[in-house]
Write a structure and sequence with these properties.
The chain has about 550 residues and is an all-alpha fold. The protein is built from 26 helices and no strands. It starts with 8 loop residues before the first helix and ends in an 11-residue tail after the last helix.
Length: about 550
């Protein structure tokens, strides 16, 4: 080849454009059922952990001799670290395009590779008996540090794979159904594993965890090889940096800085805490996201508060075998498959707010039913427990499914206002709220158990005093009901739906292709105000 026709080495290996044709940035086919299953497979790594750790508090108090207060310290310490990580990971994922490693391996896909090592090493370390409090504190903290954060970049994939509300909702529906199917199977297997061992044999949990962790690796690889993400071009990176510089100049001017140009360069030379906080707080400027944050946080708090005491409720209050929890979870998840299929269809036809209203009402019915069952305590409560759980199926499965199905369309509102692609940031703030809610309910729940006279043991299930039983009943009924009432209010006032999402998506496409703001229709201006609380004419980035 003639030397004059060769491309300069700087173009071939410029550290940026040379990576735009990698497989992780190339659409790999139509987004249909199999593609959506491929996307959904990654979530099994959480199922592989949660299926077994549902018994963790029970394991600590009944096989490790740790008091409920000590268990609370372990649970909450891990959640505090996880909460902080939730804030960092999404922002870090969004910004990885600035570095060669992020452009080469992907801002989202690089975390999938790290998850493989994590799921094989960390979870099995939890289930070793005979060690001290500090060991359990350390292993649980490391587990949670990554458990609730490695999935945050993954949640942003539908937003990057397609701009269609229908396809995003379809992917979310398949994810929920697929998760329910594998979760139901995992719960059944867990129940069989528990039944195959003596009831007071702690080694069963370690065996189960190793089994599920190995299976999770295969599911992670499926997602890695069947999904793609958006490649941040130089122009998009420049636009984001320009916006940051303008915001810093405005901040400098507001604080009397006489040299705003220098202030505008500060993010390039050092990471300012105030700059990070500005990014996090900016998400709450969008009205739709505020609603999403409230109901996501409250539903997590309600569900987790019940989960803290559910094993004790089954074993100590109702006098049933601990394996009932696994079969109960399997029944709940399997039945939830059909609920989610219906919900996915309804979200297409009706506003999500009506689905939220129905969801949280079912949760309230389940909470009342559990409270009544705990007070009455029939001789054989198994059938009644499964009947009441039917209401929890409808509510619990939906509130774990709908928010993240609707979520991919929320960052589009931010893109309309700022011109940036920050789905990871919004996922981080949502994750922060849910992790904080989980931490606080773990702390409150376990401390209330402690003050109620709960008895710990190192040899298996201990008999609990009546005061502890009453507290357990309150934790699975009264506490969750309060949180679900708050979530109900936020859900029924949520205005994002298919029609409004399609309007925002079309407007973004028009602006990105060079359309003028002045040509915006009155309808899109009205929708922008409804969903963000900001006037369309005040948006500057598209000028």
């Amino acid at each position: 080849m003639d030397n004059n026709t060769k491309k300069p080495q700087s173009v071939l290996h410029d550290g940026w454009d040379e990576y735009k044709n990698r497989r992780i940035y190339k659409p790999r086919g139509k987004i249909g059922l199999w593609r959506s299953i491929g996307y959904s497979s990654f979530y099994f790594y959480q199922t592989a952990i949660w299926t077994v750790t549902a018994y963790l508090a029970f394991f600590y108090t009944q096989f490790c001799g740790i008091s409920p207060t000590g268990t609370a310290v372990i649970m909450v310490s891990g959640r505090i670290i996880s909460t902080l990580m939730s804030l960092v990971i999404g922002k870090f994922s969004d910004s990885l395009y600035k570095y060669r490693i992020g452009r080469k391996y992907g801002r989202r896909h690089i975390f999938m590779l790290g998850t493989i090592l994590y799921v094989l090493i960390c979870p099995p370390l939890l289930w070793i008996t005979g060690l001290n409090f500090w060991y359990y504190l350390l292993t649980h903290s490391v587990l949670l540090m990554f458990l609730a954060t490695l999935n945050l970049p993954w949640y942003g994939l539908p937003n990057e794979m397609t701009d269609s509300f229908d396809k995003r909702t379809y992917m979310g529906t398949v994810r929920g159904v697929f998760g329910a199917v594998v979760g139901s199977g995992a719960a059944l297997i867990m129940g069989e594993i528990l039944n195959s061992y003596k009831q007071n044999d702690p080694h069963v949990y370690l065996v189960a965890q190793i089994f599920f962790s190995v299976i999770a690796v295969f599911f992670i690889l499926i997602t890695y090889f069947t999904t793609w993400e958006h490649f941040v071009t130089k122009d998009e990176a420049k636009r984001a940096e320009t916006l940051i510089e303008k915001e810093d100049e405005a901040d400098a001017a507001a604080h009397g800085d006489t040299n705003p140009t220098v202030a505008g360069k500060s993010p390039k030379t050092k990471k300012k805490f105030s700059h990070l906080m500005r990014d996090y707080l900016s998400t709450f400027k969008i009205k739709t996201f505020r609603k999403h944050f409230i109901y996501s946080t409250c539903e997590t708090a309600g569900g987790n508060l019940a989960a803290v005491a559910m094993t004790y409720f089954i074993v100590s209050v109702l006098g049933l075998n601990a394996s009932v929890l696994s079969f109960l979870n399997s029944y709940s998840i399997f039945a939830g498959i059909f609920i989610m299929l219906i919900a996915g269809y309804v979200i297409h036809k009706a506003a999500p707010k009506w689905v939220y209203a129905f969801t949280y009402m079912m949760c309230l019915v389940a909470a009342v039913g559990l409270g009544a069952l705990g007070i009455i305590r029939p001789a054989d409560a198994t059938i009644l427990l499964f009947v009441i759980q039917g209401f929890s199926v409808v509510g619990g499965q939906l509130y774990g499914f709908i928010p993240w199905t609707v979520f991919p369309s929320i960052p589009d509102l931010d893109t309309l206002l700022t011109g940036q692609e920050r789905s990871g940031l919004f996922a981080s703030v949502t994750g922060f709220g849910t992790e904080l809610a989980t931490a606080l309910t773990n702390l409150i729940g376990n401390m209330l158990l402690q003050v109620s006279g709960f008895v710990s043991s190192t040899t298996g299930t201990a008999n609990q005093p009546e005061s502890a039983k009453l507290m357990i009943i309150g934790l699975v009924s009264v506490g969750p009901a309060i949180f679900f009432i708050i979530a109900l209010y936020a859900g029924v006032t949520f205005k994002l739906d298919k029609k409004r999402t399609d309007m925002v998506t079309a407007e973004l496409a028009r602006l990105k292709s060079g359309g003028k703001k002045a040509d915006a229709t009155p309808e899109i201006k009205k929708v922008t105000k409804e969903l963000t609380c900001k006037n369309y004419d005040d948006i500057k980035v598209w000028n």
